[in-house]
Design goal:
By secondary structure, this protein is α+β, with helices and mostly antiparallel strands. It has one domain: 2-Layer Sandwich (Glycoprotein, Type 4 Pilin), CATH 3.30.700. The protein is built from two helices and four strands; from the N terminus they run ααββββ. A hairpin with a 5-residue loop joins β3 (about 120-125) and β4 (about 130-140).
């Protein structure tokens, strides 16, 4: 590579442009990374709720009636035969019969203290043919509610 005499590296303007580009990328990437981290942590909660919903639906299909409210995660596991990890959620069915599964989000405070104490609900309804439809809800921000 041939260099002109006196050309020895980058100019100050070139360095400032590179630093500005890195700053803009970081300003966009860091909030997106945090949001995805929160969604990943919340997926543990929603997966546990889905396991409970499957057990409730199975009970309904076998007995043609909804199970009674099960209480906390340990009670749900013992009553319906489902293991419910409780690392990020304190879970309880909200009513009797158990057509609403509610989880209170916990242990996410390091990432976003606003989410701790929020609730996610999974509500069952039946159609005329006996099919069960589940609907997500709760008082958590809409960005964190799973898609239907």
């Amino acid at each position: 590579m041939l260099r002109k005499k006196g050309q020895k590296g980058f100019t100050l303007i070139e360095l400032l442009i590179v630093i500005a580009i890195i700053g803009i990328l970081a300003a966009i990437a860091i909030p997106m990374y945090r949001a995805q981290t929160l969604k990943a942590k919340l997926s543990e909660v929603t997966n546990s709720m889905s396991a409970c919903a499957t057990a409730v639906a199975t009970y309904y299909q076998e007995n043609n009636t909804w199970p009674l409210a099960s209480g906390d995660a340990a009670a749900i596991g013992s009553n319906l035969g489902v293991f419910v990890p409780i690392g990020r959620a304190a879970m309880a069915t909200a009513n009797s019969p158990a057509t609403v599964i509610t989880a209170t989000v916990t242990n996410i405070s390091g990432s976003n203290p606003d989410l701790d104490g929020s609730t996610i609900t999974l509500t069952a309804s039946t159609t005329g043919g006996g099919a069960i439809n589940w609907t997500w809800g709760g008082n958590i921000a809409n960005a964190y509610i799973p898609r239907q």
